[in-house]
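Appendix C: a fully annotated inverse folding record. The material below is reproduced so that readers can follow the format used throughout the book. The structure is listed first as tokens, followed by the designed sequence.
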């Protein structure tokens, strides 16, 4: 899955942040978007105008970083979940730290609004071939990957769920950044928990979220059958 491996770099504002790199084998500098951004870095890092088009909301990974990083910028958005922010570098996300807002002409509310608008734009261009429908252990599933690292955050955009999963009620799980799985609304929550944890075990940058209920055009958080987690 894309944008998974993690190692240290400078963040988008020039101070210590983190980069979550993709699984491609061609090297970061082969990506046109990343190369263009790197060419504009100076002693003060990247300006807001350089990153505004590519900042997206992201769910924080469950496993802590093995090195010191600046505290991330966080916001709570509907349906009552906490998100961080990342600048899409093509093969990687550069994590946005709270300290970057000191140098950018936006506050947290402005950052959140822009990131959600960028996400909605991505959603409009999501391609249907990224949907896979097949049963797992006899349970019908619909699996969505954006191939661009943001599939899990489609739960923040109800119109995306209507397009991707249809209007019928469903239970959604988001084990990884670029993985969103739709299950029948009446699925056994123990099965949903098992499936979530199976996917999480395969991804070193896995998330640890509750499930999401999709019904009547509204997304709500729904607990899985495991120790409560903060969303």
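Designed amino acids, in order:
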């Amino acid at each position: 899955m894309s944008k998974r491996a993690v190692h240290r770099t400078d963040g988008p504002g020039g101070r210590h942040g983190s980069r979550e790199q993709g699984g491609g084998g061609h090297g970061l500098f082969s990506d046109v978007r990343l190369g263009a951004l790197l060419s504009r870095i100076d002693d003060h890092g990247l300006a807001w105008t350089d990153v505004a088009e590519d900042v997206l909301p992201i769910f924080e990974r469950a496993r802590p970083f093995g090195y010191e990083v600046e505290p991330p910028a966080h916001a709570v958005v509907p349906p009552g979940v906490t998100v961080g922010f990342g600048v899409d570098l093509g093969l990687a996300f550069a994590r946005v730290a709270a300290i970057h807002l000191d140098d950018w002409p936006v506050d947290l509310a402005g950052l959140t609004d822009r990131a959600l608008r960028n996400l909605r734009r991505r959603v409009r261009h999501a391609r249907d071939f990224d949907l896979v429908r097949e049963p797992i252990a006899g349970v019908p599933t619909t699996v969505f990957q954006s191939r661009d690292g943001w599939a899990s955050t489609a739960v923040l955009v109800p119109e995306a769920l209507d397009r991707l999963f249809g209007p019928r009620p469903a239970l959604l799980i988001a084990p990884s950044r670029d993985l969103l799985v739709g299950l029948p609304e009446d699925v056994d929550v123990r099965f949903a928990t098992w499936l979530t944890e199976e996917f999480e075990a395969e991804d070193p940058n896995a998330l640890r979220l509750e499930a999401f209920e999709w019904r009547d055009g509204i997304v709500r958080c729904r607990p899985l059958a495991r120790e409560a987690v903060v969303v």
